[in-house]
Amino acid sequence: MTTARIKLPPKLIPVFSGLARYRGARGGRGSAKTRSFALMTAVRAYMFAEAGVSGVILCGREYMNSLEDSSMEEVKQAIRSEPWLDAYFDIGDKYIRTKNKRVAYAFAGLRHNLDSIKSKARILIAWIDEAENVSETAYIKLLPTVRENGSEVWITWNPEKDGSPTDQRFVKNPPPGSKIVELNYTDNPWFPDVLEQERLSDRDRLDDQTYAWIWDGAYRENSDAQILAGKYRVAEFSFEDAFDGPYFGLDWGFSQDPTAGVRCGIYDQRLYIEHEAGKVGLENDDIASFMIARLPGIELHVVRADSARPETISHVKSKGKNGQRANLPRIEGVEKWKGSVEDGIAHLRSYKEIIIHPRCKKTLHEARTYSYKVDRMTGDVLTDIVDANNHYIDATRYALGPLIKRSGALGLMLPKRLQGKK
């Protein structure tokens, strides 16, 4: 018996393993999600045909005026990339089918061809590409037509609007039996150099929100609810002698949250976040050694941490019995007061800029997503802060604790030698 091997991004292997009604991937450019799903439709068509199952692989998009607007070319290229698949399929200008004619591809636009889709015999797989723009009406009509035993619905898309029908169905409220992942260029082992150069160019010339939408699978909209909107950017830098700092902060994790740490500094009324470190499920005994390995110089400086866990601070500060454990001898809890979170946010926003090094990916993610609550009915931005996407942000606030003023005197407290610099 001959075994065929195919290449998939590792993150997609569990998506295509085992039983599932829904399989999908969302994310930015260069992730190989479209090509991978196109390839897997051909693999499944081969498996169906070899098992004696007849039917249709339906490839749909919201808008499709002609085959040129469809996924047909992606499927053809995917089949031709594997000699054993290329030999198994009959490919014409306007059709793709197995040579034994058991399985054929159909291509349709969901907006205008939903009624004709209902007549497609035995839909085995419905793959919806560019699914961000698919309407709720289309889903309501499409899904019941994919009704064969063992039939599946596949979805691939680049997120754009928070709360789109696709987002609501498959991210916020994923149905039972779904296997859907976020897939970005960092998950693609074969990400080409030509796209890497384009990505770096976009990082330098585009605003971060647009860059994040194109490459990191973030929502495109720049909401007024985003706490740090317009205050941060991504740039490579080196920590210079002229910088104040380094300042170190730690936020303690819980069962689902990471213990998060940052190293940052200040220069010319700008905050520079240079290194981050974090892990979910980090044991107290391992915190010091973990941070020492990832935040340069942390063991030599004052480290400011969440004061809500004094027992953890004491543990991390101690070397343990007979000095058997790495420690952070100068760690201390930060002062807190009613409104200290809001005062910390005011402090962060009072910098000219917050520059985040590109290696600090989780800090950058939080800068994009840390937000105020939004009224569900009116859409109004509220003053309450969403308690999420804030672990590295909190660590940054703790690192800067002595510089943060209480309410009534909000503003930026900088070291004297920086005050007045332009």
What does this structure look like?
The protein has 422 residues and is an alpha/beta fold. The chain has two domains: 20-187, 3-Layer(aba) Sandwich (Rossmann fold); 223-414, Nucleotidyltransferase, domain 5, CATH 3.30.420.280. Helices cover 29% and strands 22% of the residues. It has 13 helices and 17 strands. It has helices spanning 33-50, 72-80, 83-86, 110-117, 136-142, 165-172, 193-205, 208-215, 284-294, 310-317, 340-350, 361-369, 391-399; strands at 22-26, 55-61, 89-91, 96-98, 103-109, 123-128, 152-157, 178-182, 232-234, 244-251, 258-267, 270-280, 303-305, 331-333, 353-356, 372-374, 381-385. A seven-stranded mixed beta sheet has the order 9-15-12-11-10-13-14, with helices on both faces. The chain has a six-stranded parallel beta sheet with strand order 5-2-6-7-1-8. A two-stranded antiparallel ribbon has the order 3-4. A hairpin with a 6-residue loop joins β16 (372-374) and β17 (381-385). Residues 251-400 form the Phage terminase large subunit C-terminal domain. Pfam families: Terminase_3, Terminase_3C. This is Phage terminase large subunit. InterPro entries: P-loop_NTPase, Terminase_L_C, Terminase_L_N, Viral_DNA_packaging_terminase. Residues 24-217 form the Phage terminase large subunit N-terminal domain.
